[in-house]
Structure formats: C-alpha cells, structure tokens
C-alpha cells in the first residue's frame, strides 16, 4: 500500500476539484523542500513552478521550514508527579508529562525554531481562527514501555505523513513529516524514562501532536498564523471491553462523513458533531455508533475506529473485509493499515504463520444488509474495530433497525482472527513474543 499522503483528486470535473487544487496551490507556494514526489501519491505531485518576475520573487520567497535541529530546550523546575497505575488520576486523561513541544508558523516568515518547554497552558486570542472555524487537526499515537525494557513508537512515520494531509485539508501550513517525527522522538526521549519507568512494562503514554490556527482574526479565510504542539498524556488501559463491543447502527438522520468532505482527515470537525449520538448510544447500553452512509447503509466506521468483519461468501470463501478508501469517507487508520498488511503476509493462502484457516483480504464498499444476511445464513464469523485508542476490539453485537445482529466470538471474549492479529501487534508494540526487532517498532533512546 502507498504511504499515507495527500488524497488523489477527482479529475472528472474542474469545478469539483477546488479543494484539491487549493491544496496543491498551497503546497506549491510554501511546501518544504523535503516534501517531494516520494512523499505524495502520483496524482498529487507538485506542479512545476511558474516563471516569476522580480516582484513575485520577493512575494514568493521561500518560507522557513520546520527544522527539529533548531529546537530550543527549557527544562521544568517544577516536576510533576507520576500517577499510580490504575489510579483515577491516570484514568482521567487530564495528566500530562513535564514537557511539551511547540512551534509557531506565520505566513510572512514560515516556521520559527521549535521549543521543548515545560508543559502548561497555551495563550490564544478570543478571536483565534481555531475557536471559530474548526481550523484544527491532530494525531493519536502511543509511546510504549516494552516487556524487554525498551521504549517504542509504532509506525510513527505514518502518523506524521497523515498529519501533513490533514493540515492541508483545512488550510494549515505544510511541514516535513520527518521533522515532526524528530520532535515527537525528542519529547518521548525527554519524558519517557520518568513517566514510563522500566517497572511498568506493558504501559503506555498517549501522544497528541496537534496543529491549530492561532491567527487572531475573525475573517473567514486561510489562517496567517498557526501553532504546532505535541503533548504526552497518561491514559488508563483501553481496548479490553469484557464481552465485546456492542454497536448501535446510525439512523437515517445521522451522517459522520460524506464524499467530497473531510472524513479521511483527522480534523476536530469529524468528532464534535458525533458526540451527541455517541452519548445517546451509551445511555442505551451501546459502546459506539456503527456509522452508515446513504440509502444502501454503507458501513464506514465504528465510532472513531475502522471496522472489520470476517465472513464466508455464499460460495464458501472465507474473507476479511473492510471499507475501502476510494470515496474518502473512511480514515486511513495506522492500525487498519497494519492489520491488512499482517493479514496479507500471514493469513493468506501463501502463509503458514498460524493454524487458522487462510482467508482472502478484501477492501470494498459493503453494507449492513450484507452483514445481516451473513448472520442469518450462518456465514458471519466475527467482527472487530481497530484504532490507536481502542486497539483491536472484538464486536459482539450490532443493533440495526430494531433488531440485534449477534456476532460470534469463538474464543469467548474475541474472535480467532482478531485475537491473533492483536497478539502480533502487541508483540511489535511492546517488544515480546519474538517481535522485538520488527521494523514497525521504533526504539527510543532514553535521556
């Protein structure tokens, strides 16, 4: 699969390509030199620059790029205490580590030198663009304390590439993804040793890189100022829902994402509007919404996670199926991508990694009626959701239009395929089960 990058444009009609043309124009004007054809899909390589007059040369002078080598470090003089494992304080998702990364961008000069500084509040004008126009995007990553004593990141390059795509979707500035990754590693190396001590193997910190438009102007236009920051936050255990996740299928008056929108980008506007329905679903005893789209009830995501199902076709072929990315209404999740790659490598007819029956890997548009039919005919094998937060979460039930679709879990609390895929991923993330040296696990040198 190609690297997560800018989503290809639809060339059917010039007037339907305004968003993609705007993204390309912004990249052409101020894209960092480290962003090249290898970083982008073939459909979105940068157009050649147009000849410029001397006046244009002044106006379009290259802006300063984000450069992690210029980071200025100021260490805290008031260290924060580390919450106890299992404490309410840790589970509150409010406690962050001692330090954070910040970097400011302006349209006049580009990126200023980033800083590593004590964690603390951010000052914003009440008129800041992000507070009014949803000019905000973020990533979700984890720093793991391995069972072998090492600190690891899991495929962080994919998160940094995806964040570049998200920033461009909402008119925020470009940056070299490798420089963002260096800043993430710097913060993890600074705070990881204290906040994930070696006597806490199997624990993690949540990493939240974020970019907001800090431009203090109420005009509805491209922001002229932005702030990038990275924080590390304590989280309690996630992804271990006893009895499996129960999903409530979305109703006809509910829509999470749509073609031509921004469902494929990790922007704040994807999440806020979904919280009302999610809250009501939880009151009814369900964990998340299974988001459907259109009259045919196409399956998109489960809450904020990608959705997978294992079933047999009517011809008896076993398949692992998930929604494709063609309509840009589904997030290209890092865990999703990793599951597909592991499954293709280890669970297809050419693999011998397990004693499980081999299956076909399918990415295509499918709907809730197909799942309903498969369950009725005894062809539904299992289903699960995947994401950085929930990890790999088995699904036990889907409620759709007044009826419950019961999903088998042959291992009691999981399906067999979800269980083995989760085990492989855990081995990579926490350095265990023979996965210690896997290329997806990036070891952090602790300070």
From TrEMBL:
**GO biological process, alphabetically ordered:** L-leucine biosynthetic process; L-valine biosynthetic process
Tell me the GO molecular function terms.
branched-chain-amino-acid transaminase activity
Q: Which family does it belong to?
A: Belongs to the class-IV pyridoxal-phosphate-dependent aminotransferase family.
Organism this protein belongs to: Clathrospora elynae
One annotated Gene Ontology cellular component of this protein: mitochondrion
Question: What SUPFAM superfamilies does the entry give?
Answer: D-aminoacid aminotransferase-like PLP-dependent enzymes
The domain of life for this entry's organism is Eukaryota
List the PROSITE patterns: AA_TRANSFER_CLASS_4
Q: Any idea of its EC number?
A: 2.6.1.42
Modification sites for N6-(pyridoxal phosphate)lysine = 266
Q: How is this protein named in the record? A: Branched-chain-amino-acid aminotransferase
Q: Signal sequence: where?
A: none
């Amino acid at each position: 699969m190609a690297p997560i990058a800018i989503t290809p444009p639809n060339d059917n009609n010039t007037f339907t390509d305004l968003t993609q043309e705007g993204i390309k124009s912004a990249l052409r004007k101020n894209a960092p030199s480290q962003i090249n054809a290898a970083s982008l899909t073939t459909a979105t390589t940068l157009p050649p620059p147009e000849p410029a007059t001397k006046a244009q040369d002044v106006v379009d002078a290259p802006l300063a790029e984000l450069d992690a080598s210029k980071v200025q470090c100021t260490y805290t003089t008031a260290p924060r205490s580390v919450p106890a494992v299992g404490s309410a304080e840790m589970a509150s998702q409010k406690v962050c580590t001692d330090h954070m990364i910040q970097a400011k961008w302006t349209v006049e000069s580009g990126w200023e030198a980033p800083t590593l500084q004590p964690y603390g509040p951010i000052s914003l004008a009440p008129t800041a663009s992000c507070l009014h126009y949803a000019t905000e995007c973020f990533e979700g990553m984890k720093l793991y304390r391995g069972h072998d004593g090492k600190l690891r990141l899991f495929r962080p390059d994919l998160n940094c590439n995806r964040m570049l795509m998200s920033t461009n979707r909402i008119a925020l500035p470009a940056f070299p993804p490798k420089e963002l990754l260096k800043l993430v590693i710097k913060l993890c190396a600074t705070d990881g040793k204290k906040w994930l001590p070696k006597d806490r193997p199997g624990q993690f910190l949540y990493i939240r890189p974020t970019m907001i438009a800090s431009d203090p102007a109420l005009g509805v236009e491209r922001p002229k100022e932005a702030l990038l920051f990275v924080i590390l936050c304590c989280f309690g255990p996630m992804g271990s829902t006893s009895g499996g996740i129960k999903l409530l299928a979305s109703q006809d008056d509910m829509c999470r994402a749509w073609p031509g929108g921004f469902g494929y980008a990790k922007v704040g506007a994807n999440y806020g509007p979904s919280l009302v329905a999610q809250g009501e679903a939880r009151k009814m005893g369900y964990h998340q919404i299974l988001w459907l789209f259109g009259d045919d009830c196409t399956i998109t995501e489960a809450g904020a996670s990608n959705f997978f199902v294992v079933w047999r076709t009517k011809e008896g072929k076993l398949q692992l199926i998930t929604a494709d990315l063609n309509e840009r209404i589904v997030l290209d999740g890092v865990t999703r991508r990793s599951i597909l790659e592991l499954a293709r490598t280890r669970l297809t007819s050419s693999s011998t990694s397990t004693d499980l029956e081999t299956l076909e890997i399918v990415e295509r548009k499918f709907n809730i009626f197909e799942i309903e039919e498969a369950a009725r005919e005894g062809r539904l094998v299992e289903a699960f959701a995947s994401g950085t937060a929930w990890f790999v979460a088995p699904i036990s039930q889907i409620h759709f239009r007044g009826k419950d679709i019961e999903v088998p879990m042959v291992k009691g609390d999981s399906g067999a395929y979800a269980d083995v895929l989760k085990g492989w991923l855990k081995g990579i993330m926490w350095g265990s089960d023979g996965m210690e040296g896997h290329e997806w696990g990036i070891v952090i040198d602790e300070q």
